[in-house]
Amino acid sequence: MGRISRRGFMAAAGMMAGLATAGDAAAVPRGAPAPAAGGRAADSPEFRGMWLATITNRDWPSRSGLTAAQQRAELIAQLDTAVARRLNAVVFQVRPAADAFWPSPYEPWSQYLTGVQGRDPGWDPLGTAVTEAHRRGLALHAWFNPYRVATHTDPTRLAAGHPARSNPDWVLPYGGKLYYNPGVPEVRAFVQNAMIDAVRRYDIDGVHFDDYFYPYPVAGQTFGDEATFARYGSGFASKAAWRRDNIDRLVREMSERIKETRAGVAFGISPFAVWRNASTDPRGSDTRGGIQTYDDLHADTRTWVKEGWIDYVVPQIYWNIGFAAADYAKLVPWWNTLVKGTGVDLYIGEALYKAGDPGQGAPWQDPAELSRHLTLAGEYAQVRGHCFFSAKEVGADRIGAMARVVADHYPSRVPVP
Q: Which stretch is the leader sequence (predicted)?
């Protein structure tokens, strides 16, 4: 996965050992590694990632309009936090809304940098992130959202010359947001070109999509692609089948183009964890999810794994052990079985943001809940790591859940698989 060699990783880990104090439970140790929980050898490669979200300035930058020096300092601090928590990968959101955190020839600079979409921030965040992550022995995965254009529905608020303004037939409003229409072939080609530009320019270790394909359903609203379906949907039994084919094409073509552009770059997706409920499809999971990715987001995640179109999958299993509708303890084995024999790596997406949130149930008020997740997942041979949502909580660690994970499961830093 990328260009972080084991030797290079260990050298960088040694250089960074002084980042945390010896008394910090998350400090990088200087001694021999202790046995790891779950039966995995302490120094075995595994994915230990955190999502670094930029949409609405969730994790970074802390607010728009900071100086370039302030933005850079905050970014470096996020990478240092990952090292101090003994993580080895950062999934950095660089295209949250048809924009860019690098000097893209296709789309404008993100408004989350300067407060004004299209305004040059005076530095290259993605280029800096790659260099500084690798210096610290961290893999850097560039995280893209393919179709979200804006968190509002007014195209006139987009930067002058924005592709969505130049091509109004490419976009649709839905649920208070603006989206590129996945059914338009020119849209699929364009968003691929925009993303591949970053793969071509930077020595990234991975390309990462999250769970947003067709938008999550909004009660009482319809995604208005009837005319698009009438134009392009002949030969499909239903609009749903046509929509799934649109997303399948995006994933398959993106996989091919990544490999053609830069060898060694992994392609991964972090879907909502319920593909289908078993009550809908006997191949589905023992869940009662209100959302099913196959039916509601038109994202056939099972096929992507079975066909090997992706290199890794990170299902967002954002529920506690024992949660009735979607039990962590039932979803992990379902995904373990799915990936077996496919060559696709399985990492589990963890809801660190729920730990200590007063709006969550009793299990999430227990600092040990997340550590129990890793213990349980460690019993399944196909699980090769975890990714935590998200960077803000990795650092703040409201009730010590992340520190407990580190103390119980991460005795030393290890390379990515």
A: 1-22
User: Which H helix or E strand runs over 283?
Assistant: none
Residue 221, both tokens: 């609203």
Q: Which helix (H) or strand (E) holds 91?
A: strand 89-95
Segment holding 313, helix H or strand E = strand 312-313
> Is 0.90 topped by the overall pTM?
yes
Q: Is the pLDDT of residue 330 over 70?
A: yes
Tokens of 119: 């305004």
Round the average pLDDT of the chain to a whole number and report it: 92
Tens-digit pLDDT profile for residues 196-219 = 999 999 999 999 999 999 999 999
Distance, CA of 236 to CA of 370 (rounded, Å): 43
CB 284 within 8 A of CB 276: yes
User: What is the pLDDT, as a whole number, of residue 42?
Assistant: 66
Residue range 374-383: mean pLDDT, rounded: 98
CA triple 242-244-246, angle to 5 deg: 70
Instruction: Retrieve residue 335's tokens.
Output: 């995904």
The answer to whether 141 touches 266, Cβ cutoff 8 Å, is yes
- Tokens 């990936």 map to which residue? 339
3-state secondary structure 187-256: HHHHHHHHHHHHHHHCCCCEEEECCCCCCCCCCCCCCCCHHHHHHHCCCCCCHHHHHHHHHHHHHHHHHH
43 confidence band (pLDDT: 50, 70, 90):
confident
Distance (Å, rounded) from C-alpha 173 to C-alpha 225? Answer: 10
Assign residue 401 a region (left: φ > 0; alpha: ψ between -120 and 50; beta: otherwise).
alpha
Q: Are the beta carbons of 410 and 13 closer than 8 angstroms? A: no
Mean pLDDT, rounded, for 157-172 = 97
CA proximity to 351, closest of 381, 379, 321, 330: 321
Confidence check: pLDDT of 8 > 80:
no
**CB proximity list for 270: less than 8 A, separation 6 or greater:** 51, 91, 208, 209, 210, 211, 313, 314, 315, 316, 349, 387
Packed helices 185-201 and 239-261: angle between N→C axes, nearest 10 degrees: 30
Give CA–CA dist 318/352, Å, rounded: 8
- Angle between helical axes of 328-339 and 369-377 (0-180°, round to 10): 30
User: How deeply is 203 buried, as exposed, middle or buried, from its count of CB atoms within 10 A (0-12, 13-18, 19+)?
Assistant: middle
